[in-house]
Recover the amino acids of this structure.
C-alpha cells in the first residue's frame, strides 16, 4: 500500500473520530479501534496456482461508556467520511440505548489522556507479476500445496481524551506442505517483511530433504520416555498455549493458571529458560485497546523465575496490582524465548538416540493446576539413532508437564531463534508471532 494512501486513511480516521467525540456528553466516553488490511492471497495445489484473491476490508470497533456502563459494537466502514459518520452515529445511538439496560461495572477502565504514537513498517514484497514463478520454480516435480498471503495491515486506536495510536506493517507468508506419492507430508513456512529469493529457496530445499526421509517405512514406538529435540515450530506451540490460562494475571489471581506453582514459588523452571514480550521487531502494535503503550520489552520469566504475569488495567484495578500494559485478554502478543548455545549442525549428535520433532498438533491442558499438556506429533518427525535419522515415526500422543520440559528435563536451547508467525486468516489476517529457538529435552513422556 502506498504511503499516500495510508496517510489518507489516517486523516479520515482522525476526522471521523473527532466528529464522534464532539457529540458526547460530559458523562460519556468513547474508544475507537480500527483494523484494516489490503491483502493478496494466492493458493497453490499440486504445484499449480489454483486461486488468486485480493481482499480489502476496514472495521471499526466502538467502545462506548455511559456512567459506569460499557458496551461495544464492531462494524465495517467504507472510507467515505460522510457515509461512515452517518453509520457510526447510528451505532452510537444503539449503544446509548443498550447502556440503559446494562448493570454498572465496578472495574470499568476509563479512557485516559496521554501521548499518541505512529509507527509504519514498510516491507519489500515479491513482484506480483513474477510471484507464481518465484513460488513454483523450486518445486520442479514435487507435489506442493500452500497458501501465500501478503500486503499491508493497519491497526489504530483513539479515544475521547485525545489519544491517537497508529500502526501499519507490510509482510508476507507462504505456508506450504510437500507431499510424497503416498501422501505423507512435510510442512514448512517462509515469512517476514523483506522477501529474499535465496532464503525461500533454502527453506524449500530443507523441506525437500526432510521429504526424502519420509520415503522409508515409519517406525512405531512404544509409550515411554524419550530424549527429544523440538524444532522451533514445535517449541512455539508450547509457548502459545501459555496464552490459555497460563501467563494471565487474572487467571493467576483466580487460581486458574498453569503457572500458579511458579507464581507461589513452590516450583521453578530451568535457569536456561527466559521468556519476554519483545516488541522491537515491529510484528504488531505496542498499544492495546486501552491506549496503553508497552515498553519494547517486558520480562515475564527470567532464568526460570516468574518476574511478572501479564496484567491488564482491569486486572490491576480488581486485584490492586500494577499493570504492565497487557491487553484485555492478557495473552502473549509478541513472545520471545531467549536462545541458548546448541548449534544447528550438532542437533542430531546431541540427540544421540531419540526423537526429532518438527511440528506438534492439538495441544491442550490435561492438568491445568500442574501445567500438564497433552498433544500429538505431526509432520516431519523422525527416529534418530547414534546421531543419524533412521526413519519417520508414526504419530504419537504425549502428556507432559511444562515444569519438566522447561525445568529439570531441559538440557539445551538452540543458539538461533526463528520467527514462527501467526498465520491465522479467519475473518482477517493476524499479526504477531513467536520468536524461539528449538530445545533438547530428556525423558519426555509419550503415552500412545
Amino acid at each position: 500500500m502506498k504511503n499516500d494512501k495510508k496517510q489518507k486513511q489516517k486523516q479520515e480516521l482522525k476526522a471521523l473520530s473527532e466528529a464522534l467525540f464532539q457529540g458526547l456528553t460530559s458523562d460519556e466516553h468513547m474508544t475507537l479501534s480500527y483494523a484494516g488490511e489490503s491483502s493478496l492471497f494466492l493458493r497453490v495445489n499440486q504445484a499449480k496456482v489454483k486461486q488468486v484473491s485480493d481482499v480489502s476490508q476496514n472495521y471499526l470497533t466502538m467502545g462506548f461508556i455511559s456512567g459506569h456502563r460499557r458496551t461495544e459494537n464492531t462494524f465495517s466502514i467504507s472510507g467515505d467520511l460522510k457515509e461512515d459518520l452517518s453509520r457510526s452515529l447510528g451505532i452510537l445511538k444503539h449503544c446509548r440505548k443498550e447502556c440503559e439496560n446494562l448493570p454498572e461495572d465496578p472495574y470499568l477502565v476509563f479512557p485516559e489522556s496521554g501521548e499518541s504514537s505512529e509507527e509504519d513498517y514498510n516491507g519489500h514484497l515479491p513482484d506480483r507479476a513474477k510471484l507464481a514463478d518465484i513460488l513454483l520454480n523450486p518445486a520442479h516435480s514435487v507435489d506442493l500445496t500452500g497458501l501465500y498471503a501478503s500486503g499491508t495491515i493497519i491497526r489504530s486506536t483513539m479515544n475521547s481524551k485525545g489519544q491517537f495510536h497508529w500502526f501499519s506493517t507490510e509482510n508476507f507468508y507462504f505456508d506450504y506442505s510437500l507431499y510424497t506419492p503416498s501422501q505423507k507430508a512435510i510442512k514448512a513456512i517462509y515469512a517476514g517483511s523483506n522477501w529474499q529469493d535465496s532464503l525461500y529457496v533454502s527453506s524449500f530445499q530443507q523441506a525437500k530433504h526432510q521429504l526424502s526421509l519420509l520415503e522409508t517405512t515409519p517406525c512405531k514406538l512404544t509409550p515411554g520416555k524419550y530424549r527429544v529435540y523440538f524444532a522451533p515450530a514445535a517449541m512455539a506451540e508450547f509457548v502459545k498455549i501459555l496464552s490459555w490460562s497460563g501467563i494471565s494475571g487474572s487467571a493467576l489471581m483466580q487460581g486458574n493458571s498453569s503457572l500458579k506453582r511458579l507464581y507461589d514459588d513452590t516450583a521453578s523452571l530451568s535457569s536456561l529458560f527466559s521468556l519476554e514480550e519483545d516488541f522491537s521487531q515491529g510484528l504488531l502494535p505496542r498499544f492495546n485497546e486501552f491506549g496503553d503503550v508497552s515498553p519494547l520489552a517486558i520480562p515475564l520469566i527470567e532464568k526460570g523465575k516468574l518476574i511478572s504475569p501479564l496484567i491488564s488495567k482491569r486486572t490491576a484495578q480488581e486485584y490492586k496490582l500494577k499493570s504492565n500494559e497487557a491487553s484485555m485478554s492478557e495473552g502473549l502478543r509478541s513472545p520471545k524465548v531467549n536462545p541458548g548455545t546448541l548449534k544447528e549442525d550438532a542437533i542430531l549428535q546431541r540427540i544421540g538416540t531419540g526423537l526429532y520433532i518438527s511440528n506438534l498438533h492439538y495441544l491442550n491442558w490435561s492438568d491445568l493446576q500442574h501445567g500438564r499438556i497433552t498433544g500429538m506429533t505431526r509432520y516431519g518427525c523422525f527416529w534418530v539413532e547414534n546421531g543419524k535419522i533412521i526413519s519417520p515415526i508414526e504419530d504419537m500422543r504425549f502428556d507432559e508437564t511444562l515444569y519438566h520440559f522447561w525445568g529439570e528435563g531441559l538440557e539445551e536451547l538452540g543458539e538461533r531463534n526463528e520467527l514462527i508467525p501467526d498465520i491465522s486468516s479467519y475473518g482477517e489476517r493476524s499479526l504477531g508471532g513467536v520468536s524461539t529457538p528449538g530445545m533438547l529435552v530428556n525423558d519426555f513422556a509419550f503415552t500412545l
